User: Fold these one by one.
Assistant:
Number 1:
Amino acid sequence: MTELEKQGLLAKEAARALSIATTDVKNRALLSIADALEENMGEWLKANQQDIEEAKRAGMKESLLDRLALTPGRVKGVADGVRQAAALPDPVGETISENVRPNGLVIRKKRVPLGVIGIIYEARPNVTVDAAALCLKSGNACILRGGKEAIRSNLAAEKIMRGALQKAGLPADCIQLVKDTSRESAQELMRLNAYVDVLIPRGGAGLIRAVTSQSSVPVIRTGEGVCHVYVDENADLDMAASILFNAKCSRPSVCNAAECVLVHENIAPEFWKKALPLLDQKNVVLRADEKAKALLGSRAESACEEDWDTEFGDYTLAVKTVKGLDEALDFIARHGTQHSECIVTKDAARAERFLNEVDAAAVYWNASTRFTDGGEFGLGAEIGISTQKLHARGPMGLEEMTSWKYVISGTGQVR
Amino acid sequence: MTELEKQGLLAKEAARALSIATTDVKNRALLSIADALEENMGEWLKANQQDIEEAKRAGMKESLLDRLALTPGRVKGVADGVRQAAALPDPVGETISENVRPNGLVIRKKRVPLGVIGIIYEARPNVTVDAAALCLKSGNACILRGGKEAIRSNLAAEKIMRGALQKAGLPADCIQLVKDTSRESAQELMRLNAYVDVLIPRGGAGLIRAVTSQSSVPVIRTGEGVCHVYVDENADLDMAASILFNAKCSRPSVCNAAECVLVHENIAPEFWKKALPLLDQKNVVLRADEKAKALLGSRAESACEEDWDTEFGDYTLAVKTVKGLDEALDFIARHGTQHSECIVTKDAARAERFLNEVDAAAVYWNASTRFTDGGEFGLGAEIGISTQKLHARGPMGLEEMTSWKYVISGTGQVR
């Protein structure tokens, strides 16, 4: 048995105990984890400092160093996140439906944990705790495989959390970190069907594609977002400019940010008069098709085919002029990633068509794509945003981290 | 572009049209398919006859020939199944939840089709129509990849169904058969992420394992069932014998049949007095552990380790003696396939523990495992029985063949 298979077996056994733990016990464990993180903050920060120094030596970029770094304020934030998880309703045990059959069998559909959740992520040590807390609250054991740059931070967090679990009377093996951060360990985790029920990759498009294509464990694909804002002929153009500016510029690195605006040709000159001054505030680079280029002149670069399928992740926006709703719908069907799509219009019938016909996790009428988020949707917290249609779509809250079982009571019925 | 990629693209386009088709249009198409199958029965039977002859030449076993064969009665049954699908409620369009956020955004969670469903199955021509009908009713386009032994039957069924679709005003490409029945075509379908949203393998354990391990398209794992009946110390032994006999013998080839009985050591002699006469009616082969062998003598063979993990699929039953509930729970955790598990007992507290702690799609108290079935559960119809925890667990009805989208209406909200 390999090291990881041993971890899998222990996780599966721990999941059995955790699946029947009461809400009280799970909440006590979460509060104990939050307290322990603050009490042992020094230990966690020290380990993180070593990761940071090593990363600097290896020449890590400033923006990545920032994601890797913990501070007392960030640790407090992570601990508070764990307390919030404790305060959320427990999805496990709910009777989803009940049904008495003509033969007298009573069939209840009951919500249960998924079991063992594997999470593969990059160098963000806060994810180690955030993900473990949501798994614990939803009754799932987790196997966490973080990036090698954060290994010391992650080992320290794991130690603190496992100690707190034991204090609360739950098996420490509910939370396990993969110590080997080689590519091989990630690949082995992707084939650990015997012990892992679901794999959730959290990170860039490259990671997510690799996991999707190599995993034999069921995967929830998260994250990739090439999101569009379609400005219709009948849009309130001030609203359209404000929505586009927010969708592109409020946080361009995240998956629900807009990457492309589709502008109805009839109102394009008017629209750009409103939108350009806003986009200029952030020096947004425009990659425009020919028609838009004719309007925007030297303010825009010429778009190439690739731009329509690119998640820029920065202050770059693709610009496409369309003849109307049908062309917009076709364009989104071809280039969207089924994440978040928006129409700005005063025409309810056109909005209705857009909302019905666009195939995406979230479709918006007159609101920014940036709202696709567990907190904004009222789900309390999220483990990621699913862009697949199987199991969960859009923000995955605690309920989406569960499955169900059928519980059938009889009096000797046979078939 | 390969032939299959072309089919994928056409299926994706057809799925867009089908996703917004009304219930009436879909039902009209289903009734038109049912009528066309009966009207063109001669054509379908003739093609099937050619498959049968070819299979006989190739030396196919009698039992497999029977699964491959169509008769006028079977065609009528298939057509009636399609009419039943038309009569079921349409899951698509349902508002699952609605939520007005403090910022005024109205967020509706709406049920939508999955999109394009791929189905890989073996040589049963009725599956071609059954699966296509359920996909159509749930608004999904389908790509069907059946076994090579049934290719002529499947081509004939595809032709009849596509004609009926067009007559009803839906794109023929909602239903497509993969013409190439080589292993390579199945493997290509498993990697067709760009066009296929879900893959459902229907067939033996070998097929299902191959698809699970090779597919990058999300898979619903169906079917494998090593199901147990645990006869507790406090069981009504007549009931236990009757349930075991039914679970093992009413249809041993199916996945919800029992493969192993766990007998509490305190009542084992009494139990076998009741159970043996029933099992003898079908000459059930017993593979027993040492303790049971001591009781059963020459009536039983000695079990080997492999027997505990085998889906016999025939009149063979593994027999294990246990000291009590805990040992039974551990044994099922180790050897079960998370399909259907049963306890027979008069003790409600023990039943409660069993129902809570056993991790399976369906857990039974005093009823046969054979009830795990979409029809028996009141789901109307099923595309398969899922033994995974992601997306769907247990019988998959029309609702389990859908996803959802979030539909958000605003008045210019930005974040």
Note: Residues 3-221+388-409 of chain B form a domain with the Aldehyde Dehydrogenase; Chain A, domain 1 fold (CATH 3.40.605.10).
Number 2:
Amino acid sequence: MIHPFSFSRIPYIIFGTGKLYELYNIIPEFGNNVLFVIGGSSLIQSGIWNEFTSKLENSSINFSSVSLSGEPSPTLIDDTVAKFHNKNLDLIVGIGGGSVLDAGKAISAMLTKDGSIKNYLEGVGNKIHDGKKIPYIAIPTTSGTGSEATKNAVISEIGPDGFKKSLRHDNLIPNITIIDSELMVSCPPSVSAACGMDAFTQLLEAYVSSKASPITDSLAYTGLKFISRNILLACSTGASNVNIRGKMAYGALISGIVLANAGLGIIHGLASPIGGFFKIPHGIVCGTLLAEATKINIKTLQNQGPNGKLALKKYAQIGAMLKEKYYGQEDKIQEYCVNLVETLEKWTEVLKIDRLGKYGINRQIIHKIVENTGMKNNPVILNKENISKIILNRL
Amino acid sequence: MIHPFSFSRIPYIIFGTGKLYELYNIIPEFGNNVLFVIGGSSLIQSGIWNEFTSKLENSSINFSSVSLSGEPSPTLIDDTVAKFHNKNLDLIVGIGGGSVLDAGKAISAMLTKDGSIKNYLEGVGNKIHDGKKIPYIAIPTTSGTGSEATKNAVISEIGPDGFKKSLRHDNLIPNITIIDSELMVSCPPSVSAACGMDAFTQLLEAYVSSKASPITDSLAYTGLKFISRNILLACSTGASNVNIRGKMAYGALISGIVLANAGLGIIHGLASPIGGFFKIPHGIVCGTLLAEATKINIKTLQNQGPNGKLALKKYAQIGAMLKEKYYGQEDKIQEYCVNLVETLEKWTEVLKIDRLGKYGINRQIIHKIVENTGMKNNPVILNKENISKIILNRL
């Protein structure tokens, strides 16, 4: 039987090499006063930003831009919003990695409000955002967080009392997302690797999630296939190939759609406190924990008897797909689950995903991390010992 | 490589048995003045309508309802719109089969306009609808057209100069769709059969469409799986089983999402003139032509050499899935394509789908039908002789 589910609206998606330039036609549909939120470096260095804006300068469109780097903090959002509060913007366009897209999303939502974004962050403030925003177009330059399709913006305050929390509303899903793989070819291998592992994590966590539906399952399965067949290439010989980058970008986009509708699991449960307490890229946290958390999830599910069967079968389906086989018989669950974990371990090694220790995380802090970790929609409840083990094995 | 594509927004989907009653909470979010557009008989006979409205009568919500039967004509839409033009409606809710949902969609779009809907129909009028509408919630009681997820309303004027044309705009996608399989259990076998064949046709035509994308492919594949495993049951021993009805309803919903984004093929190309010239249910047209048109598409693709390979492979994937096998090697294309056609022929027979002759269609009219048939996004261009043959073999 199909269990009850709901599925949010998704952005209008425009996918294809060179589609960035469709913006010239799209912007006037919203008005002629636009703010671009862009990343710190690679977009400008690649020359694309100059090429894009030179034509805009000769048009009737008024535009400003802010360039951001690092994961967005409440202060960064509040300051930017203050600067543009009375500028009557018709449209915000975010072009960048996940942090830039989250920042653009948060700015578009906070331009309709007074006071700090902190008031509206889940688990931080006590106000609920009503979804009113300036229209927002998200254009990713990395293939990772899927922020181009999600309804939340992750805001971080890093430090001992730090947090990594979301501003969330169904209406914050970008109005339009443009996926142009030409924007990804200049993304360096280490960033592509961390982002790709993040996208795979999101797809896998949504696929085995307790909130999964046939819609998220069908989308996630294909997303996982695209990422798994291209992740190693995109970080090596295929880095400048727009077809390979396009397949990674597709997987990342889908990861955003499915996480917004099926939720995530223990890896993202851990990423929230780890990313709040330490300055460590989100993709590294997910990538480094992916194989280990999957192994412990599978082991725990195997001890659940019939209750664990559905999620185990789903892990096995992905393990089979990685072997270009199709999961059919139950007697292969074990074999395919092992293959899944071994493949993830291999990727972690080949892609040289950092261990947590490099960012200052040590044994002493594990207890505090575990205390602040939520299970989200993990297919099985893990006890504190197992959660600690995931971190410990990746220090 | 992934070819460029775009993908429209989809409705907010609420799926589950008994979810009709969520309307009590949803309506006030839009306002307190609502018009229900409902079908002629089964909803009322089942007692659900009375049960539903009795609670509404004791609330602060003002509601009116119009009951419609048959496929909507321009006059029907114009008359209904005239009646409610000055009523300041906040929301339209359509509850019924595809015709009712199309009527509700058209009414919600025309309440913001003056003049006849004819002015806005593709290929009929010369005005372009701007997408402005009264918010619209679509709740299907059959599993067929997928109108609950599409951006068009099909309007028919039947007769020798008749037509079957669409009012279309991205913004006409319903705001919300509620899929409640309890509403489908009273649908009689002959209607369930025609609707199920229509949904399968839409899924298959979108799957092999020249405009298909990885998103529509992943969704359509699972939709086809659900319909194929349940269509015979839903029309026989499983008719009153909400799980089976739910799976059919899921397939129909997905058929709407994928047709809105990948388009359709020759069967719907034929359904447009046939449905305009003759009073014949849309599901019967699609159902009766499905096997024959698929056979001729496959034969034509086989003569195209490498150009036909992609679509043939997709037909083979579905043929393999029907055998609970997975398409892997190219040397099985022929075997799996044959299985697809044979399965469709079997369904047509078992479900007793009428032939066209029963509705007055004969050899003499074939030429006129073919002259008015568009190829839509059929994976291959068929010549007039082959198009005629599809009709001839189903007279």
Note: Residues 214-234 of chain B form the longest helix (21 residues).
Number 3:
Amino acid sequence: MEQRPISQAIIKRLPRYYRYLGELIAQGVERISSNEFSKLMGVTASQIRQDLNNFGGFGQQGYGYNVKNLYEEIGKILGIDRVHNIIVVGAGNFGRALAGYSDFERRGFRIKALFDRDPEKVGHEINGIEVHSIDEIQDYIRENNIEIVALTVPKAAAIDLAQKLVGTGIKGIWNFAHTDLKVPKDIVVENVHLSESIMRLSYNIVNHEKMER
Amino acid sequence: MEQRPISQAIIKRLPRYYRYLGELIAQGVERISSNEFSKLMGVTASQIRQDLNNFGGFGQQGYGYNVKNLYEEIGKILGIDRVHNIIVVGAGNFGRALAGYSDFERRGFRIKALFDRDPEKVGHEINGIEVHSIDEIQDYIRENNIEIVALTVPKAAAIDLAQKLVGTGIKGIWNFAHTDLKVPKDIVVENVHLSESIMRLSYNIVNHEKMER
């Protein structure tokens, strides 16, 4: 079977399906009709069908979706049926927040270590996770099978670090710095640009006011 | 002139244009051809033209873009030519990180106060910003012209708080809780769902590996 590339719009929706299915499981729901699921998610049933058809489709005519089954299948598609080792660079408030976020562990993302350049922080533990010196980062990655590096450092440091990470074998950068990182294609970058997020909020507020007038 | 609704895809790109133009200004660049700008941004010149045409277009044939002018115009479109008052609920690591992020202030987002339900935190200052009791939030919003509330609290607390915020006059919620908030249409919600972000990263890593094989 030839694989069509999946659009980023679909990939954006998959984790949301996964979240809702997880909530249904927690509520003890075993199956759900495509109509109910569509109402719950606030998207059309045909949108859901189309999205899932990209991966072979999972619904059955007259039955709907088996919640647990669909949850597991989407988990596999998202690659969270296995453990991903992560390190966090920057032991400031953001780094601490990530280190304290127990939800990640449940979803297969294991934060193995924090890194900082401040000698005062190195050697301490945050939420049971040790802070290492930034000088050790390349060796640590190679020796500990690290797949993802979260960068919670200022822009200039992030650009500099991204270059150091090339060739270490990491597969992804989770970038919280307010810049676009230039790295070879074998490293995937996922950006969390909070400044851009709040500007979108501002735009939508201002535009909403205009429409009300 | 009839206003077409602007797609969220364009709204997603505007803050990025704004960021690059800000960097050009910092470098002393006064004008840029549409080709150079497109190379810098990694999008086609026609994409940029189309996006900006939604707002009347700003380039001139044979001249390109006036950097400072375009920066200011996009700032106006994004509604960041005026100050937005924000409060942050949750004085944990995420709340502290937002309170310490000086970039927001520069862009017209002023964090006026933090709120927490922990009496140990109330009355203290974080980065010069006072922590108030969550019980005072509605009065505080009304008396201080608060437009945006950032929610950095667990899911159940966020759902509960969103209901309390209805009718206070706020215009937007910046939601960091891992849930979709149901609020009336006059309140805009911008979600920052970190769990979904890291699942997208995981998907792209796993899918990238498959393509390499």
Note: Residues 8-77 of chain B form a domain with the Arc Repressor Mutant, subunit A fold (CATH 1.10.10.10).
